[in-house]
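In response to reviewer comment 3 from the previous cycle, which asked for concrete evidence that the modeling workflow produces usable outputs, we include below a single protein chain processed end to end. The sequence was submitted unchanged, and the resulting structure tokens are shown without manual editing.
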Amino acid sequence: MKRLRIWSCLLVVVAATVLTGCAYIHTKTPFDSDLNETELGTKRGTADAHSVLWLVAWGDASYAAAAQNGDIRILKHADQETLTVLFGLYTRWRVIVYGD
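The workflow returned the following structure tokens.
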């Protein structure tokens, strides 16, 4: 019985280590090194790309597409947002740009 308890604890630790963040991940990261001095501007634009079942991908998550969608002529800052569900069965990449 003691051996079963040890193996169960070990299995839980390994599963928690390996499967962390596999069901749902939603992160947002800046593309800037001096955030305290960043001016965002008055406009915001986004562009997305998607992937399903690791087989099909579509979209244009480029800076140019995001700037065009937000009618931005001068880029001042950019962020990247990633949403992943169930080991990547569905993934969305989003670029968010700020400027004037």
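Strands lie at 24-30, 43-52, 56-59, 75-85, 90-99. We consider this sufficient to address the reviewer's concern, and the full set will be provided in the supplementary archive.
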